[in-house]
Structure formats: structure tokens, C-alpha cells
Amino acid sequence: MIRASNKVIRYSFSATYVSGLFEHWQKNPQSVPEGWRQYFSEQINGGAGVQGTTSLNPLDHAKQIQLLYRTYYMFRMFFVCGHQLADLDPLNLPNTKEYGRVKGSRPEMTLDSFGFKKEELDIPIYFGNKDQRSFIYPFMEVKEEWTIREIYDRLSQIYTKKYGVEYIHMVSTEQKHWVEQEMDRIAQWKPSKETQTATWQRLARVDLFNEFLKNRFTTSKRFGIEGTDTLIVGLEALVDQCAQNKVEHIIVGMAHRGRLSTLANVFKKPLEIIFAEFQNKYSKEIEESWGNIGDVKYHLGVTRDQQFPDGHHIRMTMLPNPSHLEAVNPVVQGKTRALQDICGNKQNCLGIIIHGDAAMAGQGVVYESLQLENLTGYSNEGVIHVVVNNQIGFTTTPIDSRSGLYCTDVAKAIDVPIIHVNADDPDLVEEIFKIAVRFRQQFKKDIVIDLIGYRRYGHNEQDQPAFTQPQMYEIINKQKPVFQLYDQQLRKNGVITDDFASTEIKKLNNSLETAYKNIQKETFDKVHWVPKPWEKIQQVTKWGKVKDTGVALKDLLELNEKVNHLPAELTVHPQVKRIYEQRKQSIEQGKGIDFGTAEALAFGTLLHEGFSIRLSGQDCERGTFSQRHAVLNDQKKDIKYYPLRNQIPSGGNNRFEVYNSPLSEYGVLGFEYGYSQSNPNVLTIWEGQFGDFANGCQIMIDNFITSGESKWNVPSGLVMMLPHGLDGQGPEHSSGRMERFLQLMDDDPNIVFQMKEQRIKRQILDSNFQVCVCSNPSNYFHSLRRQLRRDFRKPLILFNSKRLLKFSKATSDISLFLEGTRFHRLIPDTHEEIKAPKEIKKFIMTFYRKDKKQKRNDVAIVRVEQLAPFPYDHFRVVAQQYENAEFVFCQEEHQNSGAWQYLEPRIQNVLSLLHQQSKIKHQYLTFCGRRPSASTASGSPTVHKQELEKLLSILFQ
């Protein structure tokens, strides 16, 4: 902008443009805009110029404008590309493509490159006062006139230190200005001696701990933090800042790199426990109660309560997780969201995710998880992401592991700042971690810290990195550890003395030695170090027996009035209105209750009892098959209506939440698994749009849901709903691959349980999860309710039939929902015309309801509703009644799919036992189903129908 006669004209033009306007004005003043007429007239008559001098030649002003334009361009280049000038690499690796940098790829940011001449550098330029300026950088607030040289020197000072910030891609001007102010502050910031002394002590603990592990456990894998040691310094500073901001919960997820150092120094896990894990010393109590011996030491988690001098308290949790990189990310977000919902204040609960550089760029779940952050049903109002950047992934350098300049480029998709920082500057690292907390608390958004260091040893300390990166490791071998560099710096500057340093180091070494000696004692027992327990499971027995999941008729009728009577002011779609009318009518009449109605009854009764419901998945508000309609959209107004929220008791703290998820399976399922960990009084459900959508999240299923309790003693009551069934619609949306889940069951096929209540409970309690296929609405109702009516939690995999959701005959009478009823693991044949059990010739086991009336009355069809753990006790009682029958297992799936391979040995063991006891005539089980196939179903409806008819003809011949 230019000052002229105390007025400001804002510019967005070049010198050529101004010259052209002046020529037009000279010929005809009326041919240019009024502002320019006044400006040219004032200049000719002796108005003030850019520098406050008198000028009669407007072309001189055009030159000044061009100068100002180039200054603005210089600013812009520093904003956009300045981070590339920063001193970020402790190793100063050569400019080779292998390390992600090529000579000449960095922008040229010299005064010459911006077109400034030597004689122009000291010309003062007036930028106006704060009220006049459309653009201002924080440091420019101190005065109104700046020379080109002053601006360039200050920008270079800000952008060429050991940190670089990417923020210009952000939308919010307020947030960008906040970041610019922090960058300007850090450029001149100096830590106090007290702060540096504390940082030295933290860094000393990390260095000595790592050195101790290296020397004492030379053959053990530890995935040490050496090379990015300042991660620990930063995390401890982050916790301190969280205490100042009154954060109450911190949830951390990280991979194995640096995990032991984090547990020891940030979470204060006793050194004795860590050393004992290296020597495989476990107590009997630990083996029986905790179960953490199910995983390696650098996968384990822990919870710690930290008290601060001002009395503030923070509960810090490190989540356990497997070696599958980045898989823990959505789990952190889900658990954090659950705690936020419990606390009622999202800012009091903070999630921290620590990434690896190669994994950040390479793992798709990173993007899936990042995309959750600004969505209503999943937001944590800010997660702090920290990348432990070793500049290598095992043996792969950046040229082969990513296409972008930085491993953090994926984070630009969610409009957050990214701070790159040199890991060999402890003071700067500590301050940037504090900035991250302040940004998150103020703007309720994610922020990313890219901690750039190196990996001093191989991937697992036993590996030889020089095989693949000889140049890099030649440099690393000459590089002094960061503690040595910092120690020399502080001694040289007089911050610490030699006596202080030697005394502190001696104390730290003594504590390590003492801890090591303690584990050698016979009295050592580490049973006291266990995870914090769950929040209290809501007392369920006050509503009757735990296993009885039925509900009084008056309660069902009252619920019916509350949730199926729609407000008159709500404009509901006619088809949806008809569905609700039919639901209301079916409950009133006590018959014809379908799956959608049964689900609503289950949700409503649980809400009435004080539990909460959380359901998420793709299009789950309506339901993929238009069967749910838990959320009604007004047809004229932009409002949503949740009928089931009317069932929450007045003043109740429980919640009913239904969220359409993004088009993600891996990330969203991980989120819901994390959510289910924090509160056992919430029925947490993830619904796949089709059963085969589980394919996209198999890593989460294998490593968390089916094995988390046995590896880490982390219970979960998560429900996975997977629509399943061969309906002639092709292979992709036919099968949820139940065989994969059943293969993951840990129950013993050779144990036949007796018919005793305590044994039934023990069977499920000892299993890792449950797999059910409900063939009628009432059993579906009970399967959902028993998830919360127990005094323990287990994941439940529900394979719901797509066909039966709206099948006219797949309904239940209300009597099957009433008090005294419960979930049936196995349903015998109760057909009116069926012969007595002794006259039955064929006993068919299946897990689907027959659609047509059976023509033969000497064939019994028994439905297995709970596939796993298999109901040995119930099946044994039923099977021995059919002493003359042949036993057949039938499924519509192919022989290498479905439940056959899991059920066959279990059923066969019961039949063999009954045959030995002379209770049945036939002891062998026969299979009836489609032959083995690589694909789950035919793509032709005609072929599908022919296959089905052939199967039925064989079955009932």
C-alpha cells in the first residue's frame, strides 16, 4: 500500500499497470477510477510519496509499488517454502535423491533471487499502522517502516533455524497468524538456566537408561530411542504443559521404537519390572490374573496416575498394541472419545499418537484415522501427532518409501500445522511440544510434530544397518549422542558444573544398578504392577437374573408409546412413517415383530435400564437395507430426530448415539474397539455395510478384537454386525467370511461341557469372543441385551441374515421378549407335524431358518444360533433324543467356507461320546452344502437358484 495525503490506497498491481493508468489520466482524467484521479492529481501537486517525500513523477511511485510487490513476494516465498531452508537434519545428510533431497530442489531464497538490487536494500518502506494494513507479519508490529535488508534478515532468522513450519495450507487466518507469532517468538526465545538444567536431567535419564539396557541385555531386542532421544524430553514437557492446561487424561499410542524409554521415563514404570521382563521373570499371580506374558515387552501398555505440585492429577495411559504399524491410531482416538463422553469435556482428555516416518507415509490407516478427526461422531477436538523420524524404514530410505517431500504430507489433508524440528536441539524440542498442547487447547485441532533425528543402531540392535546404508551409518558412527552434545553446551555456558553433572550421573547409575539387583532377590514379585481396572461395570442383577434378558410387558408397551409415536410437527417420509406404524402395531398386537423392531426394543430397554448405545458404520443411521431408521430426517426442515432418545430416563447420563461413518472399515472399527475399552456400560456396535467389509479391517480383527484380552488383559464388549447370506447377488457382498472368525476362536473342541449354569458361564468367560447367527428377531433382541446384562464383557460377532431382515415369516411373538426369556444358543425343531424324536430319520443342523414348509415330517431341523463357543451342553441333550437319526450338517456356504470346518470336530466329538454311551445309533456327521470354491458365491442369480435347489433336493431326498 502507498501513503498519499494521509490516505491509504491498497495495491494489487504492477508498475506497468500504474504506468498505463497514468498515461490514460494524462490524456483524459475521467478515463480512470476516481481514487486514481485523486491520487495522480495529488502527486502532480506535490503529494507525499512512499517514503514521505515530494514527487512530481508518478512513475517513481510505480517503481516503489513494484519494490513493495517484490517484498510481498519474498514474504510469500518464506511462508510457503521457508521450512525447506531450516536446519532440520542432525546428520546433514548429502543432497542425494536417496534421502529425499536433491541438489537444487530447495528454493533459492536470496535477495538476488527476489530481484532486489544492492542500492534498493536500505530504502525504507512504509507499511502503515496496524489499522491500515491488510497484511502484517508479527515482527513488523514494532514499527511502521522497514528496509528490504531488515525484513530479509529477520525472515532468514526465523526460517533457517532448527525448526520449520508448514502452515500456509491452513484455511483459518486466525490460526495461521497464531502460528506466525509462535515462530517469531521462538526465533528470539532463550530458555532459562533452570529449564535447561531440568532438560539436562531428563536427557541424562534417557541416555543412561538406554546405555544400561545395551550393556546388560546385549542379545535382547529393545528397539531403542537412540538418535531421537529428545522424544522423551518433549513428552515430559508435554505432560507438564497438560497439567498447566488442566488436562485430566492422556492416552498414548506408539509403536515399539522408544517404547521402553517412554514407559520408564514418562510413565515411570518401575525399572525392576522392565528389567524383569528382559529376564522373563514372571510371578504366578501375573500369569493367572494379568495375562501380559502373552506379548513381548515392547508391546505392553500401562496406566499411571501422576500428581503435580499444585494438586492437579492426570491419568496417563499407554495403550498396548501389536507390531502392525499405525494400527493403534484409531484405537487411541476411540478410547479418548469414550473418556471425553464420560467426562463431558473433550479438552480434558488428550490423545497422543507417536508415528514412525516410513509408517506415517506408507500405512493407509494413518489417512483413515486422520479423516475421523473433524467428524461429529469421532472428533477428539485435537490429537497431538509426533513422528519419530529416523529418516529410514528398517532398510528402506525415503526415495523408496514415499513420493512427497515429507513423511507428514498426508496430514495436510485435514488442515493442521506441521512442525519439523531437529532432534539434536533439546531446548527447541521441549518448547515445540509445549506449543503443540497450547495450539490444541486453543483451536481444538490436531497438530503434527516431525521430530527429525536418526537411528543409531540397526532396526532391532541385532541388525547390521551398514549392509544397506553404508554412507548414512558412516556419518552416524561419527555423530555424538545428543546428551553428550547438550552436556558440553551447558558446561561451556556455565549452566551446570562438572561437580553437579558427575553427582547426578552417579545417582542415576546407582538407581539403575539397585533396580537390577532387586530382581535377583527371591522375594521379588512384580504382581503389583498391573493395568488400572475398568470403570465399574453397572450392577445388572437389580433387574433380575443376569442370564434372563426378557422384559416386562408393561415396559415394552410403554417403550412402544415413546419411540414409535412420532411428533406431529415432524414431517416424516411416508414410507418411514408406515414402518413406524407397523412397528407400533406389531408390539400392540403381540405378533409379527420383525428384526428392525426387535433391535429397537433391545436398544430402548437397555437405555431405560441406564446403559448407553453407540452404533456406527457406513449408512447405519438408516440401515443399509432400510431396516433401521434410528434417525429420522425431516422432509422439509434440516433437522434430525432420534426416537430412541425418548427412552432415556429423565436426568439420565446415558446416551444414544448413531453415526454414519466415513467410507472406512479399518480405521472406524479400530475407533469403536478403542471406544469399547473405556466404558463397559456402553453397547458399542460397528456395523459393516455388508459382511465382506470385514475384509478391509482384518488387521484390527486379528490383532486387537480377537486377541487383545489374552495378550494384554484388555476386555471389550464390542459388537460387530456383519450382514451375511448367499442371496444370488454375486460373490462380493455375500459372505462375511465367518470361517476366518471361527478359526480365531481359542476354545478347545475336545471339551464337552456339562449342562450346568456355572459351566456355561465359564465356557464363554474362557473364550476370546462369540460368534452368533440369529434366525429370529427375539433371539437377536436377547443377543444384544445379554452383552450388557453380564458381569463381564466379550466381543460379539453377529452374522445377520440380509434376507431375513424383511422376510415376512421371520418374525417373533412378543411372548419371546418377556420376563423369564433369554438367548437360545440352539433352537430345536418344534414344527407342529413333526414326528416324535425316536421316529426322526434325519437330524439336520444348520444356522438358518427354513423359508418353506418342510414336506417331510421325519426330518428335524435344529438351528445353531451360537456357533462359538459351541453349545456342547445343549446340543448333547437335544441330540441324544434322536437315537435313530442320521446327523447332517447343512450350510449354504461352500465346504471350505462358513461354519463347517469349525463345527465339524465339535459336533463329531459329542456324537462319538453319545454313540459310546449307546444313546444314538449313528455316530458320524455328514456334510451337505456347496463344494469348495475360491469365490464365495456365484455371480449369476440363475446359477445360484439352481445350486440351492440341488442342495435342498439332496438334503430332503
Automatic annotation (TrEMBL):
Protein keywords: Oxidoreductase, Thiamine pyrophosphate
Names of required cofactors: thiamine diphosphate
Residues annotated as signal peptide: none
EC number: 1.2.4.2
GO biological process, one term: tricarboxylic acid cycle
CDD domains reported in the protein's UniProt record: TPP_E1_OGDC_like (cd02016)
Domain Transketolase-like pyrimidine-binding: 593-807
GO cellular component: mitochondrion; oxoglutarate dehydrogenase complex
EC class of the enzyme, as a word: oxidoreductase
SMART domains: Transket_pyr
Matching Pfam families: 2-oxogl_dehyd_N, E1_dh, OxoGdeHyase_C, Transket_pyr
InterPro entries recorded: 2-oxogl_dehyd_N, 2oxoglutarate_DH_E1, DH_E1, KGD_C_sf, ODO-1/KGD_C, THDP-binding, Transketolase-like_Pyr-bd
Gene Ontology MF terms in the entry: oxoglutarate dehydrogenase (succinyl-transferring) activity; thiamine pyrophosphate binding
Family: Belongs to the alpha-ketoglutarate dehydrogenase family.
Main function: The 2-oxoglutarate dehydrogenase complex catalyzes the overall conversion of 2-oxoglutarate to succinyl-CoA and CO(2). It contains multiple copies of three enzymatic components: 2-oxoglutarate dehydrogenase (E1), dihydrolipoamide succinyltransferase (E2) and lipoamide dehydrogenase (E3).
Annotated protein name in UniProt: 2-oxoglutarate dehydrogenase, mitochondrial
Origin species: Paramecium tetraurelia
